[in-house]
Amino acid sequence: MKYDLDRYAPMGFPLMQELKIFAWFFGISILYSFGFLLRYLDAREELFEFTLAGKKVLIAGAIMPEMSSLIGNAFYGFFLIPLLAIAGIIYHHLFHKQGSKSIYLMKRLPNPWEFPKRCLTFPLLAIFLSIIAVLILYLLYYCIYLCFTPKACLPTASLTILRSVLL
């Protein structure tokens, strides 16, 4: 069974090109967010020192930086997706006014929601998916932060959250 996505885009619109652009932005945003992992690994390495025998031991009293400082600008790439989506909405609207001027057909259709549906569906879906991606990545990064940081080095706020989750 094949689902027709063209019903949600302007008539004659190169939908696959737009979907590829959004996919590229999602991919680049996800890759950019992996910067958190690099900052986390650097901060975790600073919790340890090497002895003369070459053993890696935890520094007494070392505290891991807060999660918010490690996140930093990891999710900035996802802020570009809503801007791209707004540009997509404008482009969809303008696309109806080009060439055969399908906007006149849209205005004559009995369903008044057909025009907004064709202009808004994919851009709003991209915004929604970017919000979901940020939430999932943040949760994943927070789990990595809590699971792989030595418990003695967790900041007080993170320890309180960890205790409330475990109890």
**What fraction of the residues are assigned to beta strands by DSSP?**
under 5%
Q: Helix and strand string, N-terminal first?
A: HHEEHHHHH
For the record, give the distance between the C-alpha atoms at the N and C termini, rounded to a whole number: 47 Å
**What is the C-alpha radius of gyration, as a whole number of Å?**
24 Å
**Helix content estimate:** 55-70%
Number of strands: 2
Structural class determined from secondary elements:
mainly alpha
Oligomeric nature of the chains: single chain
Point out poorly predicted stretches. Answer: none
SS element count, helices: 7
| Biggest sheet overview | 2 strands, antiparallel
Strand order of the largest sheet: 1-2
Q: Note the overall shape.
A: rod-shaped
Give the integer mean of the pLDDT values. Answer: 85
Fold and architecture overview:
The structure is a single chain. The protein has seven helices and two strands. With 167 residues, the protein is mostly helical. A two-stranded antiparallel sheet has the order 1-2. Helix 1 packs antiparallel against helix 4 and helix 4 (76-96) packs antiparallel against helix 6 (114-148). It is rod-shaped and about 80 Å long. The chain starts with 14 loop residues before the first helix and ends with a helix. 17% of the residues are buried. The mean pLDDT is 85.
Which key phrases capture this entry?
single chain, 167 residues, two-stranded antiparallel ribbon, 7 helices, rod-shaped
